[in-house]
Structures
1.
Amino acid sequence: MRGGTVAVVGGSIAGCAFASAAVRAGADGVVVLERTRGRLADRGVGLCVHDERAAELAAAGALPGGIPAHRLLRRRWVVRDGGAGPGGRMIWEQPFPFHSYHWGLLWRGLREATPEEVVYRQGVAVAGVAGDGGAAEVRLGDGSVERYDLAVGADGYRSVVREAVAPGARPHYAGYVCWRGNLDAALLEGLEGAESFPEAVTTVCFPGGSCVIYRIPGPDGPRVNWVLYAPPPPDGRLRFDDPTSFPPGALTPELLDHLRALLEREFPPYWGRALGLTAPADTFVQPIYDLETASTTAGRLLLAGDAATVVRPHNTSGAAKALQDATAFGAAWAGAGTWEELLRDYQAARGAAGRELVALARRLGRAQVERTPEWGRMSGAEAEAWWQGQLGGAAGIGGQSMAS
């Protein structure tokens, strides 16, 4: 199938990938509608992509070369133990064949690789969409309506397009929160018991939570990224009726005090001090949610990335899933003779895959936050068996191969 016009609602990672895929597939016109006026590259912190997923995506043209990435090889699980030194006691080590990225640098690489034929419009709010009648209608915030052959919802977990595809579908609160931050890696050089394994991910384990720590490339040099899962603060300052967060730099003194107390109480001394070096401007907290939809398509509408499924971060698959969605979209287009066939084939390729990722991430969340084991009593063999129980037959985390 050749020709046609496509509107991509949302211009972040999924949006850039889908816009590029549509141009490569032969669309006559592709427009990206991004509500943010500023630089998206200023958003976000760290993420990881499994090496096998990265190779598949690079071969498909969905992951451009030259984007800064940091190689990771192994993951160490540690607990606080007074007799084990400031870094804690390692209970298990597993292979971790991933590369880490800075969200902004990854987005910048995808944006720069977007074909010049794409019209990328910033500061454009989409108020609603409709996909019946053989066309997609996109209603903008100023009241105007634009018509396209297809509209792609790449507008994240608060998706406007999702409401038209799956009315009433909302992210569900998982019962715990995620604290995130990043700091200059050079700050660790002055700490006693300094981290000497930059190619390793460290997971700090404690009752009722865990924290994943790893290096990422940064705009001005290497940084340390961390993601801490724990019960919500008891003072009720976070809302759980709708996905929301305190963005970087917006944490209240009470929330910062709660985080500092958690680090001091539960973390090995070295890691507590290390994360304590994170500037308030680089720290934020958000409730954890997940969501799955019965269908990723309806009429002339299609959902991508977090608009289609919201997966808890434990699975380390968010960026890879968005790029895989775009790859499947391009493949469906290449094999379709009509828009209806394209949408049918995309749903067949990505609908079940998204739901499986949600289910796996829920299992990981239960085991690593909601129902944590007695970490300190586990042997390496017991930890490995515990891990396999979480996978439930899945090959691993980081997403599935598109060939499977």
2.
Amino acid sequence: MLRIGLVPIVRPLFRGAKFGLEVKARAALEALAPRLDFELAWVCEPVADAAQAEAAAKAAQAAQLDFLLLEHVTFATGDLLAPFLELPLPLGLWALPEVWDSGPLPQNALCGLNLGMSLRRQTPVKWLYGDPEDAWFFSRFRLTLDALRGVKALRESRVLWLGGPAPGFFAFDALPMTGLMVEKADLSELWAALEAVQDSEVDELLSGFDEPSDYTQEELRTTARLELALARLAQGFDGVAIREWPEIPEKLGVMAYSAMARLADRGYTFAPEGDLLGLAGQLALQAISGAPAILLDIAHFSERGVMLWHGGEAPKAWAEGPTRLIAHFNRGCPAVRDMALKAGPVSGLRILPGNKAVVHGGELSGEKGYDGDSGLLTGASWAAQEIEPRQFLASWLNHRLPHHLVVGMGEHQGALLEMCAWLGLEVLPVNLEENRLVWRV
């Protein structure tokens, strides 16, 4: 849960300082906390001068906050704001509305907000205006909370990089620069975990298999053993980027995808092919959307749209209809989950080396394509700009992006764009050039 701090600024000279507006605003903000899933974790007494501001800023930094709201109850000059602008915290400047709109000016809070936003700060500031119950305040505040959940996931998550990237997938060898804690492990740890799985555990897991399948339970024993081993290795981590081929099918005679899919049903997060930055994007999208995120390839293009596909590791939450365990399309061994991806809006995030990112989205039609998990992207957008699917494909290729799209449920590009701003990630613009050579060093 996000920890929010609140600092009211009340200059006694203004009439509005005597109305107890900060008390009402705090109560209204606390009433929002259950709806928006945050904790008003630290509130200081109203700040009225520079010395109080310095003390409050030090206390705010010690409170381990995810976001600090500086509340203009009345007007404030730069000497009261400066200590807070220097804090290494996501900061919001908030002005309460005036209690009346004629006669003597009661608070001058909006002017204070204007002054505050004109001051220099090295990192972004979010402005907010109105009472907490107002639609404008609510929508802007909720967007910020969503964005900060993504920030928190990318700064505080602990992940396992199991086996490194798949062979030849050189774009997947970069480490995240957001603060994500990465622990590396060799595939030998997977083989040891497989050896430790008891036959009785496999029997118990198989007894609960109820998904339609082209295989008997006996033929799925190795897959079930792999599922148990992966679950153990994933304990204590927020996600795992796994090199699931070629070693697993060559050594075990099975693909890892159905095991990954079943674990995803239970809340585990796996990124195939050792795509560590893809995993980071999944974790951010999940924190923002509250639903599982997946990695997909661009597999085909036609006038109907862009076909998104992967080997069959998506959770049932993404299924448009029934699912089935079938043979892998290429190796012919068990097992992958076959299903159409759910129709509806989607959002995407691709984190890139060099503090760059792509934010994208669109609309899935619910139509099934190739075996595995697949769907047709019939509407597309890039950094919240609506474009044609053909233009989406051109932009993706023109930017020479890695071949995994991170896709989450729902329209969250606004939150993703704000998250990138808080993290200092440069969002790449749409690149619609379809004819000129775009290769670069």
3.
Amino acid sequence: MMSNPYRSFTTMLTAFVVIFGVLLSAVSYWFISHELIGETSGLTRDAVEEYISGLPDAEMLFKKPPSDKTVAGQTDASQVETNSRANEEELTANIHAAFDPYGIRQIRFMGQGAQVWFSYSPANIGLALTGHDRVRFDRVMDEGSMLTAKKTTVLNLWIPIRSAEGTLIGVAEVSKDWSAQSAKIFKISLTIVLLVAAGMTILFFSLRHIFLRSSRVIESQNKELSDMLDRVHRTYDESLQAMSSALDSRDNETQGHSLRVTAYAWLLGKQMGIEGEELEMLYRGALLHDVGKIGIPDAILRKEGPLDEMEWAIMRTHVNMGVRMLAHIEFLGPALDVVRYHHERWDGLGYPDGLSGEQIPICARIFAVCDTYDAITSDRPYRASKSHETALAELSRFAGSQFCPAVVEAFMKLPPDTLQRVREMSQQDIQFLSLDELLPKVV
């Protein structure tokens, strides 16, 4: 089954092929029709002009016939009328003989006054042109060039006629049967459409095949790259966990502390709606929060009794020391908020910068609550661990002074049995337990 990108590409390619094919067919039809009309019009015009130029008195077709009483001395009106009708019939027969082979079905000759002086339809003779016919007539007379108009199966040509001296004497309107040419154009166009359709079909399946093959290659490469990045991230996190475990092993008070507090922070971050990259940075910052303690002397770090004022001053340097250690690692940049600010207090009495309230980054505020919870519920050389309820009471008591009230409230909503599972699992051999194994089991 094709995925959305494949379906989208196929739809777009199909639309392109159909639209291109229709446009190409339409353009081909127009071009063929235009060329054939031009050629046919030219041949018809030449035939009409050649016929008229061969008449002894061509101008008689474009002026009013002489009156019955003035015909070459004739005085018998009936004889004149008979002779005139015979002449007209002979002229009509000659014109039919000349133009019928060209498919001309109607012809009219109009003089300069826009009146019809010859027509296959006798009823039109003597009538003045009106409407569109008059507009076409005037245009041809003004411009002196042929005008072409096609209506379904009829091709109308308005041809300017000149005398032997080159004077414009009138216009011949020719109505030519276009059905044979239309059928020919249709056959040619249909052939082109079929060829275009075949070509477009071949092009469609060729491009689709190339796209699918390329997409599979790209998809495979992307998967390999994604797997490689996942391995790199796992390697990063495994290295961080190894560093954190090494630090915990050095500190008598914090055996398993980084593992637990990172799990608590991850759970609390999700509880507060943090996700994606920000949750990852909270995870890594929690894991490395005390990395600066690597630079604290063992005499202070492993001292079993309370620290004096000088020793506390040295201990507090672990924050800036940790930041300096990690600052040059680009991908850990956002995680430094936890390392730098996890000892700040909501009331501004913390260190190293004395930030207060929402000046403290949210990840650092989350971690501070989790760090204190773990400190209360873990065994220390100088006191035993306290219960979950006692820890929650302590957090509630210092909400608004040491801790962010909203973070404490969210922590209260974490299931106690989930927090208990974290504590129990952290008691396993730290050397063989990782957060990747712990987190899925406690959610």
4.
Amino acid sequence: MFNKDFRPRRLRTSDTLRRMVRETRISADSLIWPIFIIEGEGICDEIPSLPGQYHYSPDMLGRAVERMRAHGVSRVLLFGLPKHKDENGSSAWDSNGVVQQGIRALRAIAPELYIITDVCMCEYTSHGHCGILCGHYVDNDRTLEVLARTAVSHARAGADMVAPSDMMDGRVAAIRAALDENGFVNTPVMAYSAKFASTFYGPFRDAAGSAPAFGDRRSYQMDPHNGREAMRECELDVQEGADILMIKPAMPYLDLVRECRDRFDLPVAAYQVSGEYAMIKAAAKAGLIDEYGVMCESAVSIFRAGADILITYFACELADAIRKGDIG
């Protein structure tokens, strides 16, 4: 029987005890920092749509490494901006392509880094779509061949992991088979398993020069209304040999991060995308929010939902917050 004199209360704790009993734990090892590599020399230019983020030419990646080391971040996700684009995105698998140059440069100056590469065609095609076109439609099966070829070229250059973001059907199986056939049996695949046709990608498309020249990507990226379909996509990637499943974007899809965590026995990554980052930056600049606090709280929410890995432009700042004990 309920005791009417009982007064439930929260435990009054010191900062030390509060940190000891936190349910959600975050480590700097779980953070991945996206980096944009642009073809050329002597380039280290801030990206207007992503304040605090830069375009680095391969010879200037030492500056990115200095920043990472200063903050204790050691995992990167590389995106490339080539000079040459064509209908087939042929520079994507060029052994001297911009990402391949970047991998080798990072390996030379920072062998301790864990290097992940984005595998997609949108940055490399003249039309900006994520695959090879047949008329105004993406040819799924032809695209699988070039994605696999690109993944192998990244592994040969020294990538530790590849991350296909194209959302073509069967791409995980095609990439896994190609990696294995070329001796990269231990190179894992982090699949963009549920990548939604989101309006949150605007700053990234500006930064990567990857906006489609016509139409949109709704025929191969996911409808934001469809949660069950997202889980089917994740299940297919599990069956095809993915090592990590990713939900993208992160905060608008925390329900799917949780469902993915509950349903599949694989690590779950979430990508806090460019629009999420840019909104926090813009609101903070306008004096509407506390940037540091919102950054921390948003990261905690993603991990609390079930993510094991967070890809975020705030990686360096979050690593500092973890070291201070404000999160983690």
